[in-house]
Amino acid sequence: MITKVPAVRAEVVELPDELGRKWFNRGYHGTLHHDVRAVFTKELGLWDGDPVSLHPHPPVETARRLTDLIGPDAILTEGRRAFDAGDYRWAAQILHALVFAQPDHQAARDLQADAYEQMGYQAEGPQWRGIFLPAAKELREGVAPAAFATASPDSILAMPIGILFDFAAVHLVGDKAATADLRIDFRFTDTDETWTMWVRRGVLNARRGASPDTRLTVSGPKPALVACLLKPADAEHLVEAGKITLDGDETALTTLAGLLDDFDPDFAVVTP
């Protein structure tokens, strides 16, 4: 019987040789192990059906409790034993607890990096290799600054206006905006469109058309309005440069600026 738990099912599902030996069924784009788990998640949801995984402690808290229970020396010893035995999956898994509980434990970081490196070398799927090897690099060298930003000015300016407001919405800090009641109109002079944006109950929404009770109307071409929407604190400079005009309560932009967050593209993956 094949268990419903996706991680276990993925260990036992194999393609028949007649199919598995075909080059187009090899793990050159994804892997069978990964795809079996993905099908389960897509069809039945993220939860695997085991109540222990329904409401677990967060990863760092779980790691601290396991480390306190087992002891950092015992975890490191078991990690070394597993690595020497070629059981790199278990080495990475058991050392994960120690690295998350004590991120500065360099011996644990180095050994887990060695395990991830071996897993990367053995991975047929380039996606898996592209995950394991950067993980090893991060453990050894720390977080590397992003070489480029996917949200480049060109890609942002290419967004349709509706999606542009959706992009702004994901930057909204919900708890800060929980009691906010803000409405601003944005008039795009180069496309002759006006959109009203409002923030209420911690959510940013927008729709085409002007609002009769807006606090402020911001007018200008799309590039300038994009700059104002995503960086409302810079509105004064845009006004001085003649790129936008403001009609109404200009403090509305100050309020909006206090509700938005900047995303840091340089974040840890294998450490808390």
Walkthrough of the structure:
- With 272 residues, the chain is α+β, with helices and mostly antiparallel strands.
- The chain has 13 helices and 5 strands.
- The chain has helices at residues 6-12, 17-20, 32-44, 59-70, 72-84, 88-101, 106-122, 126-141, 153-157, 161-169, 222-230, 235-240, 251-257, and strands at 181-188, 193-200, 203-208, 216-220, 245-248.
- The protein has a 5-stranded mixed β-sheet.
- Strand 2 (193-200) and strand 3 form a beta hairpin.
- The two termini are 37 Å apart.
List its salient traits.
alpha+beta, 13 helices, 272 residues, elongated
Summed up:
The protein has 272 residues and is an alpha+beta fold. It has helices at residues 6-12, 17-20, 32-44, 59-70, 72-84, 88-101, 106-122, 126-141, 153-157, 161-169, 222-230, 235-240, 251-257; strands at 181-188, 193-200, 203-208, 216-220, 245-248. It contains 13 helices and five strands.
Give the biggest beta sheet: 5 strands, mixed
**Cα-atom Rg, whole angstroms?**
25 Å
* Class computed from helices, strands and strand pairing: alpha+beta
Please provide the ordered H/E string of secondary-structure elements.
Answer: HHHHHHHHHHEEEEHHEH
Query: What is the chains' assembly state?
Result: single chain
List the total number of helices: 13
Residue-averaged pLDDT, rounded? 89
Strand-residue proportion = 5-15%
Give a count of the beta strands, DSSP E runs of length 2 or more.
5
Draw up the topology in text.
Blueprint: H1 6-12, H2 17-20, H3 32-44, H4 59-70, H5 72-84, H6 88-101, H7 106-122, H8 126-141, H9 153-157, H10 161-169, E1 181-188, E2 193-200, E3 203-208, E4 216-220, H11 222-230, H12 235-240, E5 245-248, H13 251-257
